[in-house]
Amino acid sequence: MENHQTDAPEVETALSTEMLEELDNMLEAMRERAEEIPQWEFCDGFLTALICTRRDIPTAEWLPMLLGDGEALEVAEGQPLPKLEAFDSEAQQARFLELVALRMDEVRAQLDTEIKSLEDQAAFQPEVMDTRGALLMLPEAERAELEDEEVPSLGQVWALGFMFVVENWAEEWAAPRDKEAAQWLDAAMEFIVNLTEDDDGEATLNLYDEDGPASTSQERLDAFGEAVWAVYDLRQLWRSMGPRVEAVVKGEQPGRNDPCSCGSGKKFKKCCGA
Asked: Whole-angstrom Cα distance, residue 8 to residue 3?
């Protein structure tokens, strides 16, 4: 999946600066009511992974995983989603989902458009910030106050959000039976996982302000680009394979210690026979 070529059309950003600020303020307010509410960068990685997941995960399933206790919401047919504790009102939850839908539609369109280069205007652009670069731009007194805090590397929080989905819907990210497809998956996932690690290279760039003090290594920037291409590959891989088909066991079932007939590679007793 090295060739991503076509004449990419121009696209507008789905979320304006004002909308992104609204989301940041909304998430900040939620932290006063609920624990472990993530930053928008984490959310963007999470949403991107949902789009790349083999199964279409319903909102009632992913919303509480992102902002609640992880338990899927019970929704009667034709009824609205129950309000999560993190939101102060149903209107706030509805607005959050409205903004998220705009972003997810944008990401789908970007990933489904073949491009020549990540510089193309139609290319997928993760919502990431050079936090280290921004910190270095602060006055010395303000930097001193944050000296003991752990500052993430470029794209690290985004990648952690992506992997949060992979880990919590592991069955949808299990390696396919086709050996070539499985290798394809492993190679793409490695680029995402690499981005969850710290940038230990020599800082030569500041992506927050090109005239600012160096905060990010060239190796990290290259790794970020590789991870973006990997997202394209993951989206294409699962779309080409379609949803997982649950195995229907007919006739005699395999023994408890035999390989499961669904092709998972696990023993029957640890899989469909559990």
From this structure: 14
pLDDT for the residue numbered 100? 98
Contact at 8 Å (CB) between 89 and 83? yes
Q: What is the pLDDT of residue 123?
A: 95
The phi and psi torsions of 217 (rounded to 5 degrees) equal -85, 155
Q: Read off the tokens for 72.
A: 């899927």
Model pTM score: 0.83
On whether the CB atoms of residues 258 and 268 are closer than 8 A, the answer is yes
